[in-house]
Amino acid sequence: MINDLLQFLTYENIYYIANIGVVPCWLLLIIFPNHIITKFFVKSVIIPLLLSTAYIFIVYQIYITENIFEIFNLYLGLDELYALFSNEAFLLIFWLHFLSIGLFVGNWIASDSQTYSISKIFVIISLTVTYFTGPVGLVFYWLIRIFYSKKINYYE
Question: Could you tell me if residue 57 is inside a domain?
């Protein structure tokens, strides 16, 4: 049974499961941000726990099959980053990182928008832009938040 599970957990399958798995989370944040299901699945530790489990599994696979210290080459320049991303295990690690941080930011936007009673349409736009472009959506939300909070904070 363990062997069957390990054969199923290919990098490609982990990629598909992670991508498909976060889409309902984003939809819940957009459509039902205060619903009990959203709070249970999206705003709890469940999704980060699942993504981090996949992350740790891939790191372990790299450890037993390759040189884990290659990851430090990404700081040496774009060519080394490109070479690192040519390895699908390292690419998947970074993709899981992106998915989890993006979802965390989406959670923060959904929660923070309630604090300042930001219009639902602006929250939907912010969450959608954050899903597709990450930091651009966060900056877009921050600019909208300035108008609703009537103050500029560089930290919080």
Answer: yes
- Count up the domains in the chain and report the number: 1
What gap in Å lies between CA 52 and CA 117, rounded to an integer? 32
Cβ-contact 129, 106 below 8 angstroms: no
The residue range of the domain holding 131 is 2-149
Chain center to CA of 153: 24
Single pTM value for the model: 0.84
Rounded to whole angstroms, the Cα distance separating 75 from 43 reads 33
65-74 tens-digit pLDDT: 877 777 777 6
Decide if 70 is inside a domain: yes
Residues 90 and 70 sit within 8 Å (Cβ to Cβ): yes
